[in-house]
Amino acid sequence: AILFLLHFSFSFPFSFLSILFVFLLLFTSIIFFFIFIYFHTCAIFIFVSSVACGVVCTEKMSAAYLKKIVKKNGSPDQLEEQVAQALFELESNKDLSAVLPNVIFLGAKEIDTGANKQAIVISVPFRLLKEFRKVHTNLVRELEKKFSGRHVMIVGQRRILPTTTRDRALAKQKRPRSRTLTAVHEAILTDLVFPSDIVGKRTRVRTDGSKFLRVYLDRKDQTSLEHKLDTFTSVYKKLTGKEARFEFPIEA
Predict the structure, then answer these.
(1) What is the pTM of this model?
(2) In sequence order, what are the residues at sequence separation of 6 or more whose Cβ sits closer than 8 angstroms to the Cβ of residue 136?
(3) Of 225, 176, 179, 181, which is closest to residue 199 (Cα–Cα)?
(4) What SS3 state is found at 165?
């Protein structure tokens, strides 16, 4: 093409300016081509860097919220990961920031309460139960917003010791009352209805000989807890195998 342009320039004396214009056009095109390649490479580099940064940040966040759950056996299931992420996100809440960064939970399970409704029971270490109770009302309210349509309950993890044991060291020690089956079930009852107080309990016997526990809650909490009474019954039955009915005492 250059030889042709040179030949063309010698053939026509007045075409030198045309050839110069063509050369300038080619030079400008090459410059713009390299500028395009440069900016295109920069854009690709920025995109790859942002994607890599997003992946790293996601992995760090994932590792951060998974630290909220400590399981002795196995890995967290999908529900437990969701609870862990919810607790991690709520750490920035001004009403919960004093407690949540310093607590963990041991597990979570979903319990069917009938009528196509579910409840989430979060198991926490017994030593941290007092910390959870400091923010119980706000924490449960925020968690129920995140898990819409499901009631959330926080229960302390307790160990039941058998009446007899083969361990000689344990056999010589007197079993603490707090580790008995009855005491643990009573504690679970208290955890379920917290922050309400239990003002009375009665054991009822049906004509067929079966028993159930009637639990009376403080009337001052009737407005906030009345819609959860059936949930209390279903969860207590699932956790202990015992039947209980929750109600508020009738004014005389």
Answers:
(1) 0.70
(2) 154, 194, 195
(3) 225
(4) coil
